User: What shape does this take?
Amino acid sequence: MYWTYLRRELAGRKKQTAIVAAGLAVAIALVIIVNSLATGVRDAQTQALASVYGVGTDLTVTGAAAEPGQAGGNRFQFGDGEGETADGTTSVSQSRLMTDRMRGTLEASTVDTVAAVDGVAAASGALSLTNTTFSGQMPDFSQTQEGTAPDGQAPQDGAPPQGGPDGAGGSSFDLNSFTVLGIDAGNTAVGPLSDVTVTEGRALTGDDEGTDVAVIDATYASTNSLAVGGTIDVGGTAMQIVGIIASGSDTADTAANVYIPLDVAQSIAGAGDVVSTVYVQASSSDAISAVQTTIESALPEATVSSQSDLASTVSGSLSSASSLISNLGTWLSILVLAVALLLAVLFTISGVSRRTREFGTLKAIGWSDRRVVGQVAGESMVQGVIGGVVGLALGLAGIAVINLIAPTISTSSTTATTGGPGGGGPGAFGPAAAQTATDVVLHAPLTLWVIVAAIGLAVGGGLVAGVFGGWRAARLSPAEALRSVA
Assistant: This one.
């Protein structure tokens, strides 16, 4: 009888059922879409930071940032007679391996200090470098300075100095650079090489220490026609290519273009026994905060960053999307859900008020307060389930549209690169700050807990409305029903 009465009551109040279910459906759909987008942004953020962190890395320790005006760095310097001269033009070429002038380095012993901290499961050091090759042609200006042109004719008054090949004045320079990472080849379980795939050749091993060998990123190798068995010039040293690696992610490259043994990188760069980054893996996620605090106390001059710290530095439209979803999207979902619940409660109470004679009569013939409350709550819960099913369908449709469009968002960060005049006269070049950008495709994944939460909210919303309406119905007395009939 209960289900028969329930079905008849819902069928007789189709308008109320449709309004309550529609309100809950919109709220549920919005909650599903916002949560899926938030998950997608977090995944995109993780992807953007993957090249910095690597799988299994919980903390990074780096040198302190250089004070403004104190950033130094190596420069290109060409001495007299350097280069090859032909036809009055001198061709020069020089390759330098440089550390980041915007951030200090750490003593290599820092790795052991970090590894000894309680709660640290593994630690590995790396030296981040930039290899820059400067090449170009400089004309012979000596004749011009003596008052004659390269062809032996006196220059015309007001004419600019002539020089360079074929009498075309000026100089021609090229500046090419790529990133190099010196790694502890015997300890790659934590850090940027913890999630890479060897596509050709082999990876670096502990036996490669002290040898001039290199592993190349697959994208960089393809772009520059490099292959296993060939060589690449790193800081003026020919490094034999023993392997090519690719990122474990289909949408991201590895952390650097070239990887070489740490001791070789230190020697070629002339940096000494130092590292630029220490990658740290905590024994458990619960220990990360305590480990970070301990390392900061032990190394006050260093910068200790967690994944959340680095995530806060990601800029571009990824940051805007994250802010929009976490703030506007979340509050909008809460507001719409609250409004839907309020409407459900109000419509249920209003319906109970219009059914005074019905509930009073039912109580007069023996219905208990519990049965009356159960009847109203059952009707509201069915309305909530209908709204939840419709909302789930709308949410899935919205997620499908987002994944079909696959919007692209950008991430950018400021890094130190080499290029441009560094001061100090002709031929002096040093690293400069540059901004790099990466495009990430945004997807909205659907997780099981989101579906369960959506259905739970719908049923819970109907239950809340039913409790309020049932409480109102239970307060009715048979005498009111009899007076209403009369």
Notes: The first helix runs from residue 2 to 12. The chain has two domains: 2-47+319-407+442-485, 64-301. The chain has 13 helices and 16 strands. Confidence is low (pLDDT under 50) at residues 69-73, 143-150, 157-169, 413-436.
